[in-house]
Write a structure and sequence with these properties.
Length: about 150
Amino acid sequence: MSADKPHLPEGVPLHQLSIPVRWGDMDSLGHVNNIVYFQFFESVRMDWLEKVRAAQPSTSDIHDQGIVIVDNHAEYIVPVVCPATAVVRMAAHSPGRSSFVSTYTITVDDTLTTRGHARIVWVSNQDMKSMPMPEHIRHLIDKEKG
């Protein structure tokens, strides 16, 4: 996150999704329940992954691969309440052999409400073991380096 763009997550921008906040997303305290923020992160992450997969030929190995989350955090800045539309942004940095850090921001009406991050590990869907991240994904995340 940069000082001049506090609404953007840290790293290389990957995806953005607008999600309507539903009445049922709120808890007894009158704001969005904590677990829903993680569902928002999941929604933008899975939408990004589906677009990445769709851009590859059907013969590509990427269709036999997936991701798992091994560490997940959220920082709640301002409560979100219904009705609202949450704009969820995803970025990434620090790619390794089989993992990278995904970062998230959630805004409502241009107000930063939540920041988050997760460590994502690339896995084989067959045996659920880590595997090298596809080169085109690494290139996408590492593009700020060159």
